[in-house]
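WARN no homologs supplied; continuing
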Amino acid sequence: MASIVTPGTVVGSTEKNSPGTGTVEQNGDLIALLTGKVVDNDGVISIETHNEMLRIEVGDLVIGEVVKLNEKSGEIRILSVEGKANRAIMADQEYAQFHVTRICDRFLHNTADGLRRRDIVRAKVSEAGNVIRIDMREDVNCGVLWALCPSCGDTFVAEQNNDWNVACHTCGNQSFRALADDFGGEAGKASMNGSGKRWSGAAEAQFAKGSAGRATFIAEDIREDGRERTYFKFQGEGGGGGRERRQKAAPGCRLFVGGLSRDVEDDELRSKFKEHGKITDFALMKDDAGNSRGFGFITFEKKEMADAAIAALNGMKIKGRKIGVRDADAPRDEKPRRKQVEGARLYVGNLPFKASEDDLAALFKDHCDTAHVHWATDNAGRKKAFAFVTIMPESKGEEVVSKLNGHEMMGRTIKVDLSKPRDRSGGNNNRGGKGGKSARELRALAEEEADAKKKKRRRPKKD
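OK structure emitted
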């Protein structure tokens, strides 16, 4: 029985034969691992090849190139096995893995603190199963045999300087490598690893920089011709998740704009502020759906321009809502507070959403001298179903309540009542309310929640 087969060919059955050299048992079949002749020796099926492949075993000393480094593990590509004939290594044993604790007898925060890619190392095989695992810690002959300076590409030489044991004479870079005893072809280098010692403050400071401290560029004197280095950059790329990093504005130039209607457009708002000076940055905050969140930030070139915008636009109505404009960087105690309007404060509930503040003010002005409207909104700037109206003279509060409570406005019967003042101690004035809210405000929140539930039930199905 003799024929030429290639890896993966079924060469027999385990019912009558057993696997020999160059074959493996799989699902009752004998599979060839090598290219060569099939030989049957008393029921043992083997592959005879002129280019015999090498199988790595536990205890072998392997020479390899570091090809992958993770934070706590790494991988080498095995180049040869010491003490064995120069034969090709089986494809399933070409790579070996190691853990950071098996590099040297010293604590390493990261595998890159003791090895780098392209280093040539010697290691002992500790496992030779489905995964080849190696160890460089237990034998002084194991470790780095040859290394390149990652800064300039020249060859490192063994040179002790506190914790650093290798140096580059071209660019002056110093570093640490888990050296084999014969690093660079000279004996006695393993003693430079500082086995069991703690790292100095300077070394710890370098390691604490993380990946940035370990990253390097190739220097121009070895790998480049001295021309200025340029890097590709995507449009809009930069710090802060891909957005361009904004320069910090001078004090008093950056304004916060609040109370905006969700219907306001960027260009409309920008044009209002542009009248008062040069705008260097404009950001209207929006939610994931692209709707305005009711506030934004506008930066002027000079503080005088920002002050003029505050004086002219603070309290202006845009899209039916009064906006607030102030210095965004002013300390909290210096930010202007909303002035308390004097008069009788009335709660108005069950309002139609199509009504405006002007419509509501006009209704109350027929029964009093002045009416100041504050329409409640949610975080997105959408109007709620209630508002507070402050009227003058204050003595007409109960009279206006009796006349307008139950009045029909745009198809809805509104509710009007006196708003009880908040108790700053944490409860409602003589009502035991929670959270410092008046009874009317609590009622308004309940009405709003009920309206939201009704709308949710009436919401049409999406296609």
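Helices lie at 201-208, 211-214, 220-223, 266-274, 303-313, 357-365, 397-404, 439-458.
OK
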